[in-house]
Amino acid sequence: MLQTLHRSKTPSGASYVDHGTGEEILVLIHGVGMRIEAWGPQIEQLSKGHRVIAVDLPGHGFSAPLDARPELPNFVVWFARLVDELGFDAVNVAGHSMGALIAAGFAATMPLKLRRVALLNGVYKRTPTARQAVEARAEEIFSGAFDREAPLERWFSSDEKDGAAYRLVRELLQKVDAGGYAAAYRAFATGDAVYSDCWPQVARPALFLTGDGDKNSTAEMAEEMARAAPEGRAVVVKGHRHMVNLTAPEEVSEALADWLTWQPAQ
């Protein structure tokens, strides 16, 4: 059974949790269909030495729906407003999947507010075939007649289906608001190339992490983004797929903790 975390809300209706203390402020953004609880292991581990903020995407969890067209730049504007409402001058941002696209957009458009950026299972310049497939899924989801079980087949291997991570993600997919899910997925499906050329200009420590079994957010994508970013590094977790922060929580939390100590080259 899902254990709901105690949340607060910004004036504009964004739901978030705030744990820990420290000089480094880390903001976590989950993926489509998930909510703050999908970051549970990272909140627990990283808040021991840092202040960790985790947010519900618009129309997910307890956040108000997006008040604009379902396009990636509008999600980036939403996130930048949240950072302003929380009163932060600059933050470290880590996003998973759709959250990774938002994190990339924040890095591209708000460089003065960024200390470090981490993309977990981020997509980057999909092939035409992959883009066609994800856009077809977006249209199906937007129609309201979509299969909430289908993502599990892509996100988990067969030997992970008896685990706690699988059960949590399945429950979150069953609970997510259909309209919020559809809006975020449409932005996700059309957003992989919006900020894809930003990385040469992002002069901040940038981590690109994925699982070697993730066929949509591939190791090659992570490595290509890392090569493009002046301060980029790629981490590929062996034997895991899309929900790597839940299926390999210790390894992912350790990679994030290490990233939070990186200093940009002078």
TrEMBL record:
**TM ranges:** none
Q: Which SUPFAM superfamilies match?
A: alpha/beta-Hydrolases
Domain AB hydrolase-1 spans what residues? Answer: 26-255
| InterPro entries linked | AB_hydrolase_1 (IPR000073), AB_hydrolase_fold (IPR029058), AB_hydrolase_sf (IPR050266)
> Cross-referenced PANTHER family, in alphabetical order?
HYDROLASE, PUTATIVE (AFU_ORTHOLOGUE AFUA_2G14860)-RELATED, MONOACYLGLYCEROL LIPASE
Name of the molecule in the record = Pimeloyl-ACP methyl ester carboxylesterase
